[in-house]
Design a protein that fits this description.
Layout: H1 4-17, E1 26-31, E2 34-41, H2 44-56, E3 62-65, E4 68-69, H3 79-92, E5 102-106, E6 109-113, E7 115-116, H4 119-130, E8 137-140, E9 143-144, H5 153-166, E10 175-180, E11 183-190, H6 193-204, E12 211-214, E13 217-218
Parallel strand pairs: 2-3, 2-4, 6-8, 7-9, 11-12, 11-13
Antiparallel strand pairs: 1-2, 5-6, 10-11
Helix pairs in contact: 1-2
């Protein structure tokens, strides 16, 4: 079991190793396995990359992200410019083209709303927007449209478990999945925060899922 000092050194090393994290102004505080990231970065995508890097480190039980995005003047975009680029993403991406997603931009912060048919479309919209230059933050309020023929809860659960068993880095036998009216509850144990993210990603990629309640514990 790593102590907090070892974890801090490992997280710092992972941040330095990740080419998407370029800032030297990120601080790392560790207490009883919980990592708090502080400091400033020049892009929202870098902020997310830093959090994901910390989650990959074995022994990290939780990540608290307190990084501030400060976009340099030469990298700033107008809200109108960001909105135009989002509109192009929604138009050009084949998985998002026919959705009812709308975006509101204020001071670089993007709020996504509207309805989509599949859970993965909600995730994809966030991932595409977070890569845009000038974006300082994202709030995703997109909802999943209820289909006329709902999948049975047991069918959804079986699809999720099958996806988890296929994933090489997820120990599916330690995870319990409960489904009711499209709401999926996850219980059990994972070995890392990054594994928890992979489990959630697999769940959101399953048809019929409208909400995820993650009660997984990192041990």
């Amino acid at each position: 079991m790593k102590n907090d000092q070892q974890l801090q050194m490992d997280v710092l090393a992972e941040l330095q190793w990740d080419p998407r994290v370029q800032s030297n102004e990120i601080g790392v505080i560790v207490k009883e396995g919980a990592v708090t990231l502080t400091g400033t970065v020049s892009a929202y995508a870098e902020k997310l990359a830093a959090a994901r890097a910390a989650k990959r480190v074995r022994g990290v039980r939780a990540v608290v992200e307190e990084i501030e995005v400060r976009i340099p003047a030469q990298m700033r975009s107008t809200d109108e410019g960001i909105g135009e680029r989002i509109a192009k993403i929604l138009q050009w991406n084949i998985a998002l083209r026919d959705t009812a997603i709308q975006a509101e931009v204020q001071d670089g912060h993007v709020t996504l709303s509207g309805e989509v048919q599949w859970p993965y479309q909600k995730q994809m919209a966030t991932h595409r927007v977070e890569e845009l230059r000038g974006v300082a933050g994202i709030t995703n309020l997109i909802t999943i449209r209820e289909s006329g023929g709902k999948l049975a809860a047991e069918d959804v659960r079986q699809q999720i478990m099958a996806a988890l068993h296929r994933h090489a880095t997820v120990e599916a036998s330690r995870i319990q999945v409960t489904v009711a009216d499209g709401k999926v509850a996850l219980d059990g144990v994972v070995s890392a925060v990054s594994e928890r993210d992979l489990v959630e990603e697999a769940v959101w990629g399953t048809a019929g899922v409208t909400e995820v309640v993650d009660r997984l514990m990192v041990r």
